[in-house]
Every structure is written in structure tokens, then in C-alpha cells.
DNA sequence: TTTATATTTAGATATTTGTCTAAATACCTA
DNA sequence: TAGGTATTTAGACAAATATCTAAATATAAA
């Protein structure tokens, strides 16, 4: 759960997930949505990947990112039991 | 949501919440559960308080901490819509 | 093969974070 | 009031983090 919480602890990364909720996007399309340089967005995507919150697939010159929410299940159930 | 995610992004703090799920505890009782100095635990409790994940009440020399899970609601619903 | 586009890697830097020790504050009890 | 216990505050420090620029890599197109 550590890596997931770490990945979620950043507004930009949470907004990236919100974007990917709508549809898969290339790294460049994601970067265009923010006032941050591409290398910085690439770094954010790497952290999201490490947490398995996104998956990526290379297609030609592009890298397409997709949302993966299955890793949220543990956090969700932890929070639910915390609420009891 | 920022402060809550920040507060949750630490194993010690999440374990403090787990402890408080069982029953209210004084700062000292919480500190005893960890191999960390009391000032450090106090700092963690401060971060949890700022996020409103715990409330505290002074009773004599003691400060009693309680869990407050209502601030998790926003996060929970955000995660649920992310899963769609 | 050369040039252009998409993305990541490397390295630097300022800020934030978790931890510590020492000191301060607050309350209780004799 | 004096001494003891509980907790927090202050200040320091090493490690982690978010960001940037410059360079490297990979693919596509001319």
C-alpha cells in the first residue's frame, strides 16, 4: 500500500489519473494538460507505474498510458474497516 | 484532500489510525506502541490533526486522541468514481 | 540516411519530510 | 511551593521529493 499512497500524495498525479479515467492518453497528451515540463510529467508517470496505478504500452513513437484501479482495492478496504 | 493524502502517506501514521480504531488513547500510550521518540510521535499526531483524521482533548496532564474518519469520505468517493 | 518528433534519462537544486536531542509548557501531588 | 509526569516546541540534520535544463534514445518521415 505504501507505493500507492505515495503515488496518490500529489495533486498532479491525481489529476493524471482523473484524465486517464476518461480515456487512454499518450505521454505527450498528458503533458499538454499541465504547466509542467515533459520530463517532470514523465517522472510522475513513472511513479504511477511503479505503484501500478497506470500501465503503458509503446505504439510507434508514442507511449500510451492507461488507468489501472485494481490496486486501489486494498486501500479502499483498509479505509472501510477504519470507518468500521 | 491534499492534507489527508499527505497524512496517510506514512506507515507510522496509518498504524496510529489503526490503533485508534480500537479505542481512544493518550499521546503517551500511542508513543509506547512505536520505536520512535515521543516528540516524533507528537509531530505525527499534529499532522493527523491538521488533516482532521484525529481529534484531541486535554484531560488533566493527558491528551486523549480519537479517530475521525469523516474526512475519508471525499477520498473514498473519489476512488470509487475513479473505478467507475 | 538525414531530419523531425516523442519520450525518457541524467544531473542539479530548492523544498519538504521524518527523525533526533534539548528545552519549554502544563498539570498533578505532596 | 517544589518536584514529578505528560506533552509539545524549537532547532538541527539527513533523506526524499518535485521541478528544471540538457542530453540520450527510439521511432517515423522525407
The fraction of residues in strands of chain A falls at: 15-25%
- What is the correct CATH architecture of chain A? Orthogonal Bundle
Mind telling me the CATH superfamily name of chain A?
Winged helix-like DNA-binding domain superfamily/Winged helix DNA-binding domain
Which pair of protein chains has the largest interface, and what are the residue counts? A-B, 23 and 23 residues
CATH class of chain A: Mainly Alpha
Q: What is the percent of helical residues of chain A?
A: 55-70%
Overall pLDDT score of chain A? 98
| Rounded Rg of chain A | 13 Å
The largest β sheet of chain A comes out as:
3 strands, antiparallel
Low-confidence stretches of chain A: none
Beta-strand segment tally of chain A: 3
Strands in their spatial order, largest beta sheet of chain A: 1-3-2
CATH overall fold name of chain A? Arc Repressor Mutant, subunit A
Shape summary of chain A: elongated
Give the end-to-end Cα distance of chain A, rounded to a whole number of Å.
19 Å
Number of helical regions of chain A: 5
Oligomer: homodimer
Q: How many separate domains of chain A?
A: 1
- Strand-and-helix sequence of chain A, N→C? HHEHHEEH
Which structural class best describes the helix and strand composition of chain A?
alpha+beta
Organism (chains A, B): Pontibacter fetidus
Pfam families (chains A, B): HTH_5
Domain HTH arsR-type (chains A, B): 1-84
GO molecular function (chains A, B): DNA binding; DNA-binding transcription factor activity
